[in-house]
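note to self — DONT lose this again. spent like an hour looking for the file last time. sequence + predicted structure for the chain T wanted, 195 res
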Amino acid sequence: MQPCLKTAKSLIGKLLVRINGKKLYSGIIVETEAYLGSKDAAAHSYKGMTERNRSMFSEGGIAYVYFTYGNHYCMNAVVGKSGTAHGVLIRAIEPVNGIKNMIKNRGTDNIYNLCSGPGKLTEAFEIGPKQNGIQLNSNELFIAEPFEKRKHSVIRTKRIGITKNADKLFRFIDPDSPFVSGINYKKFIKNYKKN
């Protein structure tokens, strides 16, 4: 398996942490998508380096934050050697810390809708262009092992919201999580309680 795909899978269950002044945000990563640089027509880096995607061509371990669809930011963890431009999009998290501020930032008190999509989680966590290119082990943004270990199932699916290379099984989710994007959480919870 490609290192980028391995990373996308291994990030499920990890803790994403954002510190902004006195505000602390954290959440368990429950959904990711891998993008494989010049080998992947869906990747921003497919046609080479631009001013927008420059961070993707850096050595792995930094954040690539970009504006998309004219209304929100998304964040990738850059993976691999300098020049490969592979990235893992953090698509959804299960909120842990800073939920009150997330609710304020997002304008919703529906916990399942706070971070169930890449644009939602960056808004909830106050992640924007200032975080583009920073190390993912910095004091303001990092990925760590959660304090409380729990087992996570992981399945691979097709990526969503794209048209190029849409058949690739490059999306990884925790199928037991109601915080994954694109699901009917009310139906999920109802069915989950039955099982």
